[in-house]
Amino acid sequence: MKDIVSRIRKELKENSDEKTRESGKRFFKEEIKAYGVKTSLVRGIGKKYFREIKNFNKNEIFELCEKLWQSGYMEESFIACYWSYNLRKKYEPGDFDVFERWVFTYVSNWASCDTLCNHTIGEFVEKYPEYISNLKKWALSENRWARRASAVTLIIPARKGLFLEEIFKIADLLYSDEDDLVQKGYGWMLKAASDAHEQDVFDYVMKNKNTMPRTALRYAIEKMPADMKKKAMEK
Question: Are residues 161 and 186 in the same domain?
C-alpha cells in the first residue's frame, strides 16, 4: 500500500510545473503546498491508481487517503477526495468520524475543503441526514475550515431541493461570521438552495439584508432575476 502512495507522489512531481504552481497561488490568501499539476492531470492520476485499489476494503483505502492528506499537498488531497467519494456506495455511519478528522486535522485551504465537502461529505449526509446536526456543531467551531465545511457540505443536496430548513439554520449560525471565506461558503449554500427554493431564499435574504454581510448576500442572490437582486441590494 505504501508503494502506491510513493508512485503517486513520483508521478505528481514528474508532472509538476512552476508556472502552474505560481499561477495557482493567486487564488489563495493563505500559503498552500502544491506541486503545480493541472487539475485534469491530477484527476487522471487519481483515476488510474484507483483502478489498482478498487478491490481493497474500504478501511484500507481510507488509510491510503489519510497518508495522502498527511502530506499537506493540495493535489494529494484532491486524489484522497476522489477516492473517498468513489466509496460512497459503501458509506456507513461510523465513516463520519473519519471525514470529520480530515476536516479538522488536514484541511488548510478552500479548494481542499470544498472538494471534500461538496462530494464525499455531501454524499454522506444525503445518505445519513441525521449527521447534519454535527454540521451545526462545526458552524460554531473556532476552525474556519470547519465553519466553511458546515455550509459547503450542503451545496449538492441544496441544489436538489433537500434540507432547506437545516440550510437556514446553518446560515443563521454563520450569519455574522467575520471570515470572508465562511461568508462566501454560506452564501454559496443559499445560492444553491435557490435553484429549487428561490422564493424561500429570497424571503430569507430580504428579512436579513440590512445586517447580512454583503459578501454572503451577493453570493446568495447571484442566480436570481434582476428585479429580485435589485430589491435585495437596496439599502
Answer: yes
Residues 84, 115 within the same domain: no
Which pLDDT belongs to residue 229?
96
pLDDT at res. 125: 98
The pTM score is 0.95
Tally: H helices and E strands in the chain: 16, 0
pLDDT of residue 20: 87
pLDDT (0 to 100) of residue 123:
98
User: Do residues 125 and 118 make contact, with C-beta atoms less than 8 angstroms apart?
Assistant: no
Phi, psi for residue 2 in degrees, rounded to 5 = -60, -35
Q: Give the Cα separation of 221 and 230 in Å (integer).
A: 10
DSSP 30: S
**119 lies in some domain:** yes
Q: Are residues 110 and 75 in the same domain?
A: no
Q: Same domain for 79 and 141?
A: no
The Cα 107–Cα 101 span in angstroms is 9
Asked if 37 and 16 touch (Cβ cutoff 8 Å), the reply is yes
Domain that holds residue 221: 104-235
- Identify which of 6, 87, 11 has the alpha carbon closest to the alpha carbon of residue 43: 11
CA gap 125, 212 in Å, rounded: 27
Residues in CB range of 62: below 8 A, 6 or more apart: 84, 87, 95, 98
Mean pLDDT of the chain: 96
What single letter denotes the amino acid at residue 229? K
Query: Which amino acid is present at 29?
Result: K
The set of cell numbers assigned to 55 is: 478491490
Q: How far apart are CA 200 and CA 89, in angstroms?
A: 32
| 95 part of a folded domain | no
